[in-house]
Amino acid sequence: MTALSVALVNLKPGTGKTTSAVWLAHVFAEAGHTVLLVDADPSGSALEWADLAAMNPGLPLQAAFPFRIVALPSRNLHRRVPEIALTDDVVIIDAPQLEDHEGIARSAMRYVDEILIPCAPSPIEINRTTPVRDEITEVEELRDRPGRSAVLLNRCVARANSTANARAVLEDLGYGVLRTAVPRLEVYAQSFGMPIPDAGRDVWRRVAQDLIERPVPRGPVPS
Fold first, then answer.
1. pLDDT tens sequence across 192-204
2. pLDDT by residue (tens digit) across 97-116?
3. pTM
4. What DSSP letter does each residue of 166-222 carry, written as one string?
5. Domains plus CATH for the chain?
């Protein structure tokens, strides 16, 4: 049994799934966990990021991404990841957008303990979470154990009311929302293809702690 498994899922691309997955993988590894990052998106963005970061002349080959990363854009991901993951791994899955790769995304949701929905604090992105929630409800019937889901507010403007307003709307809609909101910063927006810098990690450490502190269901799905 892995220590924790999380899938980053959303309806459309460009919502911060890959960025969230990569930064989370780094802070979990930094904290001493063994980490498996699964790039389940056929576009291979996380794997490309790892390849580009490894080319940085200032770092040893394994230092840029100090954890295992595999490409697995498969509709049978929920069966194949258990064959790859080690006991006590933190497994983080960068899932593809639901609108184009529903089968793969559903398989990722079927496997993990926690489905995390990155969402900017804007009305259009909040509205787009509804199809994701519908998919989560359908997938729950296929799981062999109960799972959890939460919204990760990201790309938030500092000191703007939009973050608090979005949190209130999402909670009124019945979503769990992680306590930590990820600000809109250049260090995140410009990090693709680069080794993860120390600057900006504190926020993701808090996100990781939020995930750790959430109870992870382990029992069978109630009948």
1. 999 999 999 999 9
2. 999 999 999 999 999 999 99
3. 0.92
4. HHHHHHHTT--B-S---B--HHHHT-TTSPPPSTTHHHHHHHHHHHHHS----SPPP
5. 4-213 (3.40.50.300)
